[in-house]
Design a protein that fits this description.
The chain is an alpha+beta fold. It has two domains: 378 residues, no CATH class; 80 residues, Alpha-Beta Plaits, CATH 3.30.70.1450. It has 25 helices and nine strands. A five-stranded antiparallel sheet has the order 3-2-4-1-5, with helices on one face. The chain has a four-stranded antiparallel sheet with strand order 7-8-6-9. It is globular. The chain starts with a helix and ends with a helix. It comes from Marinococcus halophilus. GO terms for molecular function: monoatomic cation transmembrane transporter activity. This is Sodium:sulfate symporter. Its main location: membrane. One of its GO terms (cellular component) is plasma membrane.
């Protein structure tokens, strides 16, 4: 190994560790590594910036706009809601729901699909007494598998497509991945409807389950001088044996009192940290002298005003809130919302509400003002997973929705026939949407997830560094020395497994970008079809089923489903094995 190869490897290992431990937003971590590579001369400026002009990356940007225009009308969501209402029985309902959802995910961004259907499915389950935990993980998995069917099904496919073009290969056709994606989706859904359904946790149903989840929420109340039980014990103040509420800590200036005994004296200025049911929080707030701290001037009493409501949101991987305290995030000015309570799975947070440092996957109970809907739509900081009924909800004319859907279908047909490239077709679709006023430039800007694009473009540069220094060829040689004696199928299994491990630990797009140079180097060494490795890497990078952090749709359903980390491992590990066997089997049959 050369010094440059060692340096690049150290940078990549550091990048993987930073991504795994969530030291900063993924896009900033990868971009920082790219800047170091450029400043140290490993990459020229042109090589470092090549990802920003890559056709695959730019196609993803256009696809965000096109998908946003189609989903803006709500036609898909309304159709699926009516379709779901006609379902009877849990397993038959899963079959009726997740097959069309997987089909939609082949052509639309899967993240908005999961965000839109999480509250719909959760409410439907509660009305019928089913456990939402039986449905929400399959919702995420169905969209992931559906995304493997077409070129535009997931950004990962477009990333690999763009890298293939950069390396002088032909890239993917619209339905080339369907040869693997269709059987994978069919077998995967069959697993979820049978064995997977039995492995899924059946947490308590209905309102009881909601209350149990709410006990994990943390809220903060301040003792005002007007509180009638100042200088009385916790027992005398009636704060010890509250139904549905538990006082876990008192914060008094720099002192923390935990656990709280019955004889602890309550003083003015104390901050009382509770876990409990939302309805009981509201009742407790009505006690004179106790004030619920939401980080804003809003209170729960403002819910009586139709312009305010409670919503549940999940902090995203791309969130600028990551590692910030709620106080630093300035929720009131940024989102017109206050944080009423915070839920973090499998962890009791020991902090005042304003001092809690947010992490991806945290569930926030927000008291939202009248401008919340408009402000959150332009943000990728969190996903709202409860129904919004504010007056600001925009209802598009159905004709515009059908027109945007028709344009998307025509563009797909044009690409399939070969008249236009994917980038040209998406660019034309965006132009038609602008001319037809289906979407405004401001809405287009809000739909584009710039953090995702920065991550992908930066990852391209890191991939270039692996190729230019010879690190990719060196790693390919190491894999070959181990796998080649066992046969080509063993090499494919190694490539799939390594890509899948990366995608669980970091992000799917970054995993694909790191593995493509290695895969193409192996193909070159063996003088075999490079497309076999490209397809394997594309599928493996998307097939993230084992952890809630590997793929953003898994993260979205994590809190609302009340899942434990181990639930994903128990249900997702067999699906990962199925995905690996199907992918390697089909690729081996088609290309070798």
């Amino acid at each position: 190994m050369t010094i440059e190869m060692v340096f690049v490897m150290i940078l990549i290992v550091g990048m993987l560790l930073a991504l795994f431990f969530e030291l900063a937003r993924p896009d900033m971590v990868v971009f920082s590594v790219l800047v170091v590579l450029m400043l140290t001369g490993i990459l020229s400026t042109e090589q470092a910036l090549s990802g920003f002009s890559n056709e695959g990356m730019l196609t993803i940007a256009l696809l965000f706009i096109v998908a946003g225009a189609v989903q803006k009308s709500g036609i898909v969501e309304r159709f699926m809601t009516r379709w779901l209402q006609k379902s009877h029985g849990p397993v038959s309902s899963m079959v009726r729901t997740f097959i069309p959802i997987a089909g939609m995910s082949a052509f639309l961004n899967n993240t908005p699909i999961v965000v839109a259907f999480t509250p719909v499915i959760k409410k439907w389950c509660e009305e019928r007494g089913y456990a939402p935990s039986k449905f929400l993980i399959p919702l995420s998995y169905a969209t992931i598998m559906g995304g493997t069917i077409t070129l535009i099904g997931t950004s990962t496919n477009l990333v690999v497509h763009g890298m293939l073009l950069d390396y002088g290969e032909s890239g993917f056709s619209m339905f080339q991945l369907a040869a693997v994606g269709l059987p994978l989706t069919a077998v995967g859904l069959l697993y979820l409807f049978t064995i997977g359904y039995r492995l899924l946790p059946a947490y308590e149903n209905g309102k009881k389950q909601m209350e149990e989840e709410a006990k994990e929420y943390l809220c903060e109340m301040k003792v005002e001088p007007a509180f009638p039980y100042v200088r009385k014990t916790v027992q005398e103040a009636g704060l010890r044996d509250l139904q549905g509420m538990f006082l876990i800590e008192i914060i008094r200036k720099d002192e923390r009192i935990s656990p709280v005994s019955s004889n602890t004296i309550v003083q003015a200025g104390d901050r009382l940290i509770f876990t409990g049911v939302l309805e009981k929080m509201a009742d407790l707030q009505r006690s004179p002298g106790l004030t619920l701290k939401t980080g804003t001037e809003l209170t729960l009493d403002d819910l009586r005003d139709n312009t305010n409501q409670l919503v549940e949101a999940v902090v995203s991987h791309q969130s600028s809130l990551q590692s910030k305290s709620i106080k630093q995030a300035q929720f009131r000015s940024t989102y017109d919302a206050g944080v009423v309570a915070v839920h973090r799975n499998n962890e009791r947070i020991q902090s005042k509400i304003g001092d809690i440092r947010l992490r991806p996957g945290d569930s926030l109970l927000l008291l939202a003002g009248s401008d919340f809907l408009q402000k959150y739509r332009s943000s990728t900081d969190f996903y709202v997973v409860s129904a919004l009924n504010t007056p600001d909800t925009i209802k598009e004319p159905p004709a515009k929705g059908w027109f945007s859907l028709a344009v998307l279908m025509v563009m797909i047909a044009v690409v399939t026939i070969g008249w236009l490239s994917m980038f040209q077709a998406m660019a034309l679709a965006v132009l038609i949407f602008f001319i037809g006023r289906i979407i405004t430039p401001e809405e287009a800007k809000r739909n584009v997830q710039f953090q995702v694009l920065l991550l992908i473009a930066s990852a391209f540069g890191v991939g270039n560094a692996m190729t230019e220094t010879g690190l990719a060829a060196w790693m390919a040689g190491g894999l070959l020395s181990f796998g080649e004696p066992l046969g080509m199928v063993a090499v494919l299994f190694l490539i799939y497994a390594l890509t899948n491990i990366f995608t669980e630990l970091i992000t799917n797009s970054a995993a694909a970008v790191l593995m493509i140079p290695i895969g193409l180097s192996i193909a070159d060494s063996l003088n075999v079809e490079p497309m076999a490795f490209a397809v394997t890497i594309a599928i493996a990078a998307s097939a993230s089923f084992i952890t809630p952090i590997g793929y953003q749709t898994n993260l979205i359903v994590y809190g609302p489903g009340g899942y434990k980390f181990s639930d994903y491992l128990k249900v997702g590990m067999p699906l990962t094995v199925i995905s690996m066997l199907v992918t390697v089997g089909v690729v081996s049959y088609l290309y070798f």
